[in-house]
Fold these 2 entries.
Entry 1:
Amino acid sequence: MNQEIFTINNLWMMVATILVFIMHLGFASLEAGLTRAKNTVNILFKNTIIPAIGLLTYAFIGFNLMYPGDDFVGSFFGFAGIGLSLPEGWSTSEYNEGYTFFTDFIFQAMFAATAATIVSGAVAERIKLGPFIFFSLLYVGICYPIVGMWKWGGGFLDALDIPFYDFAGSTIVHSVGGWGALVGAFLLGPRLGKYTADGMKPIPGHNIPMATIGVFLLWFGWFGFNGGSVLTADPGTVSLVFVTTAIAGAAGAFGALIASYLKFKTYDITMVLNGVLAGLVSITAGADLMGVGEAAIIGFIGGTLVVFAVVFFDRIKIDDPVGAISVHLICGVWGTLAVGLFGDLAGMGQVWSQLIGIGVVGAFCVGTSWLIFFSLKKTIGIRVDEREELEGLDINEHSMSAYPDFATKD
Amino acid sequence: MNQEIFTINNLWMMVATILVFIMHLGFASLEAGLTRAKNTVNILFKNTIIPAIGLLTYAFIGFNLMYPGDDFVGSFFGFAGIGLSLPEGWSTSEYNEGYTFFTDFIFQAMFAATAATIVSGAVAERIKLGPFIFFSLLYVGICYPIVGMWKWGGGFLDALDIPFYDFAGSTIVHSVGGWGALVGAFLLGPRLGKYTADGMKPIPGHNIPMATIGVFLLWFGWFGFNGGSVLTADPGTVSLVFVTTAIAGAAGAFGALIASYLKFKTYDITMVLNGVLAGLVSITAGADLMGVGEAAIIGFIGGTLVVFAVVFFDRIKIDDPVGAISVHLICGVWGTLAVGLFGDLAGMGQVWSQLIGIGVVGAFCVGTSWLIFFSLKKTIGIRVDEREELEGLDINEHSMSAYPDFATKD
Amino acid sequence: MNQEIFTINNLWMMVATILVFIMHLGFASLEAGLTRAKNTVNILFKNTIIPAIGLLTYAFIGFNLMYPGDDFVGSFFGFAGIGLSLPEGWSTSEYNEGYTFFTDFIFQAMFAATAATIVSGAVAERIKLGPFIFFSLLYVGICYPIVGMWKWGGGFLDALDIPFYDFAGSTIVHSVGGWGALVGAFLLGPRLGKYTADGMKPIPGHNIPMATIGVFLLWFGWFGFNGGSVLTADPGTVSLVFVTTAIAGAAGAFGALIASYLKFKTYDITMVLNGVLAGLVSITAGADLMGVGEAAIIGFIGGTLVVFAVVFFDRIKIDDPVGAISVHLICGVWGTLAVGLFGDLAGMGQVWSQLIGIGVVGAFCVGTSWLIFFSLKKTIGIRVDEREELEGLDINEHSMSAYPDFATKD
């Protein structure tokens, strides 16, 4: 192909990479904003170290697990070795018409940490730092790339008669995080004082501006997450993906606004913020397949679902401080299914393939995250002690406070 | 035209789209920062839902009102139908040499919500949420695209003998918001305790870091707002626009610094922050016509104007918590006029055309926003009751606080 | 060269320009977050006005000092005149194959303010505003471009037998700021109460979320700072630079995590945040020369160094509230040296050239910043009085508070 188009494609992929990078600040802000001031340093610490873990483990092992290439050894597992080694023609369209080898690596590497970041939100305010970092190393470094290989690395989900379809990762990225979040939140148990004899007691987030900053940065970055998943700068496809991404986020906000107003008779900003994310997660699997109306419907349903899911998980006493399971797991599943119900690939065969993908990924992620969390729980323990949880993790794990100059209510 | 240039143009327009998107976080942060903690959730709620409204109404109706195309029915009004329908060749340079149909839509859609966001700042801390959302739906969905059509959709302002000139929207975007802000602030009346028998009592913003984040994000996004308005990636024009945009913002900061120091004998950061925005709004109408020196003069005067405008509106007891009218209306008018005074088009004929544009847009926007706000005022009411205003809108409209963990002074 | 590649190159340079721009918000957030609430307005004021100073002085004089071009008058000093004047063919590849004249100017102009921003952090919480702005005008307007000319403008450091190498400015940008920071912090003396008879008393930053936002925005912008320093959109080089930049930041976080845990037995988030920056500063001189493993080593060592440097400067009672000297000077020197130790240019000859560059730049910057700060100290004074320092600069210099609605502990 010509050098001009190759250079443009690669430029777009690099810009998309940076946009995905800033999503990590989005996750950090959202999670910090929706939890209590006494645990803020802990949350920011985790969310700073997780992208660092993601980048380093992905360079060391993840990239070669996810894209085994010529060293492919099977449909479920392949591995091209430790570390990055430059293939012939790595900086030209010989490697790929959309990007160089390094662009390929760095774009995918930015995604990798997302799985652990999602888990982070659900286990916040009570998990021990060390075990969580250990979990992240394994989940991001090994589990995520194995799942990714099944679809994006040419594995068995891509080889089904009607291939499983997941454009930018409703299942491959978001549900992977979501399943880990579910297992983590379940094994940890709820925060002290959340579910009492008198019923569920909401624990409000301490900084709504931070949470809002987080959601806007995530939406901003999602244009790179979905737009970059086109893997070229093709004008038609990327602009379509921008539109479906924008519309689904907006419709998600409305869906959550209406559902939460009907349910709670108040304008709940945390629901609207999660509604935006719900819309975005929902469109992610099929962002390149849908029209404007379909994107609006898929996003709107996602925004509605998230409200009911939050209520549901509270009812079964799975305590998820930021709603990560509702957003990333429930809407990840919904968005993946929506590929079979709307748009260019709609049909019962596709629904079936989507269900296979959802199920197999779910089984693997529940299994591996259970194995890791459960082993940690039975050995070094995963939950801070009661005094530490009440005083806050910041003072106990980090010997400091996020806001030392301000008087707090507690 | 060749596919390479088309692809580059479209890529730049998509990047510009995202930059305009993040301006909505800029507006949200600025407005939240410059108002009181007890109304923060309310402000963030509005500023999250407004872009969602903008995107959805623009897809449903606004885009086809603003760019009626072949279905053009007159110089003042045209309409191409409900919803988006893909024209032939939508993804190629057949549609436009600078962008695909979807890029066209999404870039313009990101602008659309700005009009309501500007109003939001001026009516903050006392307007009812429901009526404001209703106003936004009509103002963003109908009034803004009609005005936009007059110039950018080929309407009568573009057809004057010496065409009205407004490169990126000092009048078409900023003054549209500014006039609505003026009408809203006037009809609502000032916040309780602002203008007392003892004179004007300043009500300081509660979070200056948030306000600063807001202004920087707006400046950041303005490179897309102005740079994208070139509508191609033409190296000469876009780089000139970047320079005039950067210089005008910087000069606006200095203008406001000097004017406010002379007037108040202190270094007032809110004036400097609004001075940056004043410079940016001022250059917006002629960002592609000015040299570096002219951009500096226009921005500097804008920064000076905003200081006197803020004082003036306080004198006539129009209470504008964030200075939105001074920034967007006064500097929007100034920047539009400056096109007749400086740069490539300077001349009395152009001044006259600019005045026509300013006047007609002003009359229409005052008329329509008055009609909407006044109808709402006489029916369901637009202002929260006194108790709610004193307690804060957050606890009353949203049943929550933005900072529940912190002790407040009130 | 062909117009397509020129247009792509220029587009990337403009995007990189905006990324560097947002680093100023990163610096503002980081510095505000790591200092006390009573000085927040002052810090944000400085960090808003400094980029404005940078842009305006660079247009007026700096650009022509740094790139004297045909008007070059020597190896140490050259000057092409006051203001910007458009050269023939400014908007085409005649000017440069990578960018237009205006892109050239604006990309470099965004860098210019960085030198003063770095100083700002080290002198925070006790310097008078007026003298600091005066210092910034001279340091950014004159000293920085003179140093820059020595390497990037074709001066003597570029003309050594083995040319001094500094890809994106570990020495030319970061150490210039770092030396000024060292001199400023030394001449000002420590903040009241920092070093007492009972030893060093830490003064914790008041807003860790702000500091975290700052570091992520700096990392985000660094992809433009380093990536744009390629000066074209060349796919191979830019993508390599992205990877080394990302990996060095991640490794810096780990280096600081491990070093600070071993030293302090706690998970210190401020060390990890500064570790990210340390990694980024360290890779900046050789971001285009290193492989992935080398980038990791350089970043990791940078992250480790910053922990020991912070302890060291506290031991010699140089009070640097944000760790700017440790990050930008120590790691700037380290990164510059690393070019002689790792990667494509490694060798003792290169080490020697790097040492010359480090030494000459250091001598000049210490000399000029000493001259400016010392003259100011002996005339109008550079330090606020004791009462003002204790009460905070916000109320005394700006007549306002950053958080008026919140109850503080002091």
Entry 2:
Amino acid sequence: MLIVDSVQHAKAGHAGMALGMAEVAYFLYRHAMRYNPTSPKWFNRDRFVLSAGHGCLLQYVCLHLARFQSVQHGIMSSRFLCYTTGPLGQGVANAVGLALAEANLGARFNKPDVAVVDHRTYCIMGDGCSIEGISNEAASLAAHWKLHKLTLIYDDNHNTIDGSTDLALSEDISARFEALGWNTITVDNSQGNLEAFKNALISAHSETGKPTFIRVKTTIGKLSRKEGTSKAHHGTFDDDDVKLMKQKVKWDDTEAFHVIPMVYREMQAQADLGGRMEQEWHSKLYYYQNKYPEEAAEFKFLLADGMLPGWECSLPKWSMSDPVDSTRGYSGKCLNELAKVLPGLIGGSADLASSNQAYLHNLGDFKQPNSPWGRNIRYGVREHAMAGISNGLPLHSGGLIPFAATFLVLSDYMKNSIRLSTLSHAGVLYIFTHDSVGIGEDGPTHQPIEHLAGLRAIPHLLLFRPADGKETAGAYKVAIENRNVPSLLALSRQKVAGNVEGTLADAVGKGGYIVSDNSEKELPEIILIGSGSELCLCEASANVLSKEGRRVRVVSLVCWRLFNRQTRDYKELVLPSSVSKRVSVEAGSPLG
Amino acid sequence: MLIVDSVQHAKAGHAGMALGMAEVAYFLYRHAMRYNPTSPKWFNRDRFVLSAGHGCLLQYVCLHLARFQSVQHGIMSSRFLCYTTGPLGQGVANAVGLALAEANLGARFNKPDVAVVDHRTYCIMGDGCSIEGISNEAASLAAHWKLHKLTLIYDDNHNTIDGSTDLALSEDISARFEALGWNTITVDNSQGNLEAFKNALISAHSETGKPTFIRVKTTIGKLSRKEGTSKAHHGTFDDDDVKLMKQKVKWDDTEAFHVIPMVYREMQAQADLGGRMEQEWHSKLYYYQNKYPEEAAEFKFLLADGMLPGWECSLPKWSMSDPVDSTRGYSGKCLNELAKVLPGLIGGSADLASSNQAYLHNLGDFKQPNSPWGRNIRYGVREHAMAGISNGLPLHSGGLIPFAATFLVLSDYMKNSIRLSTLSHAGVLYIFTHDSVGIGEDGPTHQPIEHLAGLRAIPHLLLFRPADGKETAGAYKVAIENRNVPSLLALSRQKVAGNVEGTLADAVGKGGYIVSDNSEKELPEIILIGSGSELCLCEASANVLSKEGRRVRVVSLVCWRLFNRQTRDYKELVLPSSVSKRVSVEAGSPLG
């Protein structure tokens, strides 16, 4: 009835799924999940993802009943929500990311005598989530990695917005998950009998080699006159329908938002259990620290922000005398040096590890037989799931710094997930190589000439297009310092002309800066503005113009967003408004 | 050996897949597929899609052996290729689109006594294609629609770029396709025995309710020293490896690009068969025309460009006195009027048909029991497959005009396919509603404030953001007139202020034009430039400024790309360069 009252109060919302899954969600919060409402960020808590994010009312109501303090009725927000789902399927990938983080950290830190990382991940998905491509990709990986502590609960209510799922769905979803390698269980909860669901969870918990898929047959909009139809998907109820629903469950209290005190008491029991478990976990951690001080120190870094003081000193320093390389080549060297001092750096490529030069040498492949603790993640050709999974990692542990690599052109496959990184403050590091036409023989399908514009338009994302080794190292530094937002490195396949005399790693944080200027005390006549592999073209052109007696300035615009954030004075200093002869050079769309 | 010679000559290419699948592809072109090299665009030919597009050498070689005239060795291009695949998984969706077109047109035009639409669609995919989310979405739909004339051939060579598929793949792909509803067959072709493959095709051809998935176990880079390893995926061979390969198959001819004359003769037999079948088809068509003249006339329109003269007159005409509506509402009315005069207009939404107002009333749902001929396609929550399938439709028949609808924010899920629409000249009509912050209660995950910028940067795509009914109708007209490129309509959820006095349907083709100006014979002091739901804000502001005695012009910039294509004089007329006070108003990213 809290769900009903909330949707009536807000005059909007998606009560249908919330009503259909109310009993299941209550069971999870009351009996299954381990959490502590007075310590909501407790590291070893179970994680919960509502992939069918439109049903968030359900989660708010559960959080309220469990007395998470900041949840407010009808206002539909909670600071205990860590991530944004909504675009369907994303949450499934996020949940795989959370379970991956648990498995990876467990393999790295647990000892035969003490497990400091040991929790489950639950995810609720709907029909839409189940048929989106990203969820199939992510589910395939979850089984490949044997993430047995992951439980995916499928709200099988047989309705989507446009009508019955019969309109567009005839596959056997359970059989598909079985084919992917999951333990699958079907539960009929349309009559509200939770015994079968309880048994399904027991089976899930006893599974040690597979993630578990629980298909729960439910009734959308249960109790209401719209029940079982797509009309219940979203929107409010008629007043007399509300009255009828309350009668059906003998809800004689007429006051809205009423909660029977016993429900709070019931939920309190689970909260108390969570509190005791957190205490136990702290005792374990104490024991761990004494017995394994070195591992404990690293583990604590990962629970905080993952930064060892002075980490940035490990970044390579390049000069003009160094051999020339591609910026993907410089990037690979930065990444490998950083991996030595940042224990949370973990990630991989969608089957292009060597092309992207995004492989951590000697740090193992996650879940391969000899390296369950490996920090290289082999995503296979699954760009979208890679991005969705990456979003789950920093949200699991503040110190995890995920990187996700592919060709820039394939960022299209991941775009919604990249967007959600910014909305969820997931500090993913996107390493996108082959960033323009200089990609070799693959042709237009693989030439990302328009992608920089689209990615630069995503609010908050920091997009770096470094020109050489120095700027690449600088971009890594700024990216890792700014982990409340994702960063994206657009990198060349081809060798750049070498390190440019005037570039500076430390200037990357300004977004744009003067690389060279022969104007001495005067203002330049011409400003050449370049980024990435085209900055050296600007330098070469400036040299020619300089010989012709022109006053020329070259500006590197390595990150537009950071340059925009500088003071008016600084921007005027770099790009004086009185100099109107400006040429921008970038091998891509001029948009912007 | 043509494959080997080609990759050596071009010093690049992906010979591994081509060698592993050479026998299968040869069998398809020699024995299975119906085509006529002297009439390559014959309507009733079988369609072939190489989803693993990097292996295009294989296709070029087959086209050469079949004597399609414009194929040239080593130059790797052919004007007989209709679409661009490459980004993995796309081709599977394209093939489903081709098979859908065949099934839809067959249901609409075939008669009990004569089938004028009757061909098969073949698609080869690799490991990468098989695990990309888009292929699972598309395969799910193919089975739902019972596209039994579609045969998907899976090149199971157990290798991707990064190494063995064991790195990232442990699902049972055949079982997954079975769960999706496919007829599945496994063939071991690693020893070059084509008998089993032949039997698989016979089984596929006898299947009447399901598409068929043939898993062919092959050896990547067969014959070469790299065979069976990921090293064979791409790149050239050592010269002595080439020598060894030629010895292995007793290829004593030393000249590169040698073809044994018998091979041409063998292939010629199939070409001759295709020629005879085309003749038979023309006879059928003649009979059909005599017996069913009305249907034949419509069918012929669909084989050409699908345009009935005067079609544009059916577009609604709005004026200021009409009731206000959202632009999605105006769009829905245009779409339904157009559907009456454009028999090729066919499409659907990814489970948002009513939200998008993209439903053709009284024209049935494709493949629902009562309407196999339906022109509404129910894609379910599968945006990416919707876009990939839509690309297949206009490439099947010039007169098919597909529309694909969802929320603008979810264009992210389809971005790569949209990009491929432009590269393949597939005139898809993208109908994207809820185009900015005015979307109701859904919040930031569903507010596409950055998407216009990214989409406008895609070369060739025509993006329209109409302000009212008149401009919406104008946008439809221009979009349908320009079907060599895709068009995108960005439409509001909320009602706009009404039809604006100065807007003109006929001006949309210019991309930008003057809506109002109170300057009389002088130049304006200020130009307000708006698009979509913000144009009326510009008009309202202009009224205020006008009352204050200012000379103000309002410009509608409904399609940036078309405006950019106008003459310098016209652009100067609309936006005089001497008027530097310009305000652009669009509820989205200012990028651009």
